Amino acid sequence: MSASPVIEVDQRNLRYGEFHAVKDLSFQVERGELYALLGTNGAGKTSTLEVIEGHRDPSSGRARVFGKSPTNRREVRSRMGIMLQESGIAQDLTVAETVRLIGHISGRQDSVERVLNLVDLAHKGGTRSSQLSGGEKRRLDFAAAVYGRPELIILDEPTTGLDIQSRDALWETVQQLREDGATVVLTTHYLEEAQQRADRIGLMHQGTFHLQGTVSDLTRTLPASIQFSLPPDAPALPMWPAPLAGRSYSIETFALQRDLKNLLEWADDHAVELSDLSAAPTRLDDVFRAIGAESVPSPLLVR
C-alpha cells in the first residue's frame, strides 16, 4: 500500500442547524484496502460519505481525497466512482445511453460494451432504464460506478435488491478491481459482507466512531459463547457457567479454544455427555447489537 492515504478525514464536524450529525470524526483509508463504514441508523454514515464525495462541506475539520479537497472536482471526481444507495438513473435513457452518459460526465475512458458485460447487462443495452427490474437497476448503478476503472470506488448499500448470484458476481468484480489497485469504501446493512470482505471497519454511533479496526479487533471486544446441556446427575463443573432454561448452560469467554478444551476434557474424564453443544466465536453482528450497551468493555480501537 502507498504511504499516502487515499482518504484523510481529520476532526471533521457536521451540523444541521442545532443538530450535531458528525462529531470530531478522524480516519484514513489506505490505498488498495476495502474500508467498511458501518453504523446504526442516523449514525452519520451518509453525511460522512457526502463530504468524501464532495457533495457537502464539513462545518469544521478537514477532509482530503488523493490529497485534495473533495470539492475539487477537476482533480478528484474523475478518479472516483460512486454507487449511490438510491438510483439516480434517467428513466427515459437506455442502459447503454446511461453508461455512456456517466462516462462522459466522469471524464474517464472506457468501453460501454466492456462495462455492460462486466455487470451482465449486455443483453439489456437497448432497454430503457424504466423497464429494468430492481436488481438490474442496481447492476446499472454499479456499472456507472466502475466505468473507466476509477481508483476510488464508493459503494453505498451495493447489494440491496440483488439475488445471490448477482451479489456473488458483484463481489467478484470488486475483487478484480482491487487486484488492479482500486480502493473501496463500503456501507452495507449485510454485516456478513463486511465481515468477510473488509480489511478494516469503522463502526459509527451517534455521529462518531464507537469502534474502528479490523474484524478481529472489533470481535475481540466481546466474549465468545459456549452452550451445552448437562444430565441431572452431572458432577460440578470446573468453571462457572451461566444457567439457561432447564439443564442448559452458557459460558462466555475471551479464550474460546482453551475453555472449550477444558470443558471437553472434563466431560471425557467424568463420562458426561454434553448435549446440544455449540461453540460460537463473536461475530460482527454481535458487536453491532452491543453498540451503546454499557457492557461493551473495549475502548476505541484504531489501526
Automatic annotation (TrEMBL):
Keyword Membrane: no
Keywords: Antibiotic resistance, ATP-binding, Nucleotide-binding, Transport
Subcellular location: Cell membrane
GO molecular function terms noted in the UniProt entry: ATP binding
PROSITE patterns: ABC_TRANSPORTER_1, ABC_TRANSPORTER_2
SUPFAM superfamilies associated with the record: P-loop containing nucleoside triphosphate hydrolases
Bilayer disposition of the protein: Peripheral membrane protein
Domain called ABC transporter: residue spans: 7-231
Name used for this protein in its record: ABC transporter ATP-binding protein
Species name: Occultella gossypii
Upper lineage: Bacteria, Bacillati, Actinomycetota, Actinomycetes, Micrococcales
